[in-house]
Amino acid sequence: MRDILPPESARWRRFNTVFADIVEAAGYGQLIPPLLEDLGVFTRLGDATDVVTKEMYDFVDKGDRRVALRPEMTAGVCRSFAQHRPTTPWKTYYTGSNFRYEKPQRGRYRQFDQVGIEVLGADDPHVDVEVIALAWEFYRRLGLQHVRLIVNSLGEPGDRARYVEALRVHFEAAGDALSAQSRETLTRNPLRVLDSKREGDRAIIADAPRIADFHTDEAAAHFAAVCEGLRSLGIPFEVEPKLVRGLDYYLRTIFEFQGGTLDSAQNALGGGGRYDGLVEALGGPPTPGVGFALGIDRTLLACDDEGVFPPEPRALDAFVVDVTGGCEAILLTAELRAAGLAVDRGFENRSMKAQMKLANRSGADAALIVGDDELTAGTIVVKPLRSGEEQVTIPRSDLIAHLTGTDRDDR
Ligand code: HAM
Q: What does 221-271 look like in DSSP terms, one character per residue?
């Protein structure tokens, strides 16, 4: 688990703001679910999911309840829906930390942040298209050029079950030719064997049955409508028949956004899909659902690799350098901040030289210098720190107009 320090932390905040602006403009409202849920909320995600069986931060609290730090947000959103029964379609977005006991490496952490959206109560394939298009727009807004969108459909519940069975038969027939790890995966979740990157497994996976051959007409029509909608928006995508997702609740449409620059094990910047049975599993009425989550940590690494959406230096309008030892710096900073300016100051009555060093380091546009002469005369020395302009001495009463440029507009 890491600390996120300035200026990186400011970039995280901008990331969240850009995301919120996009999804709020599309009618999504923010849900702030708790970080901790009853363990049962997550165990219903399926015992074939590593996230649930191996990676969960679960414990018994002081009231003897089995609880867990959330490993993802979708289950909490569905629990919230089942509890509050809002009118549908319920369009929510969220942002926050999740916890998975994974092996930490670049782009994979035990505490990581996500932004995401979920739409509950709408079956229409056009909702799937809207959800994917909003993520696409967000990547575009960040400036990322190398994001690849892959989509697939896991079909209706019956299709998925028949497909999983066919995969089981196929992989079991391969016997020891399949790697020991994949044979172990096979016993828990045959779908995940398709994810194996092991050289020896490749040929067996290439020959595996295709999900599309198991789609009912209904599932095929839903998926065709999603693809058609994406095409109509000019969003480039590839159908990847071997795409399965790490979580077990998906049905019908699934998708993933892959970055071009991270290691392949960490190149999923985000993903999502339909999970039509999840609300019901959490005690709510049968409710279709679709959404995505994008990893903040990984997306920002991809931004670094592509040289876009950089951290920005702190923007300060002014830094007050007061060497008079009285209350002038207190008053001046308070007045300027009240006028909407971003202002910092030196403390501990340090020397002019020491305070000027701080002012230069602060990134402020100007130092506002107050010595005994200025205090007596009611003036301030404004020393531009970045523009290379000459310093000027102005009446204190003109300072706000001077700094905001309104004196120039008046002329
Ligand atoms: P997920 O694929 O498990 O899906 O996670 C989504 C994204 O979170 C990943 O693509 C990745 O960027 C980021 N992520 C996951 N684990 C880590 C980690 N250990 N370190 C850093 N980043 C990580 C979900 O969580 C689903 N709830 C998505 C969804 C929403 N499906 C439907 N609605």
A: HHHHHHHHHHHHTT---EE-TT---SSS--EEEEEEEE-SSS-GGG-EEEE
Tell me how far the alpha carbon of residue 246 lies from the centroid of ligand 1, in angstroms. Answer: 9
The string of pLDDT tens digits covering residues 277-315 is: 899 999 999 999 999 999 999 999 999 999 999 998 778
Q: Residue holding tokens 């720190």? A: 385
Q: What separation, in Å, do the N-terminal and C-terminal C-alpha atoms of the chain show?
A: 55
Asked whether the beta carbons of 150 and 261 are under 8 A apart, the reply is: no
Q: Measuring from atom 1 of ligand 1, which residue has the nearest CA?
A: 271
- Please tell me the pTM assigned to this model: 0.93
CA of 373 to the centre of ligand 1 (A): 61
Decide if 96 contacts 114 (C-beta within 8 A): yes
pLDDT tens by residue, 220-273:
999 999 999 999 999 999 999 999 888 889 999 999 999 987 666 678 999 999
CA of 294 from ligand 1 middle (Å) equals 6
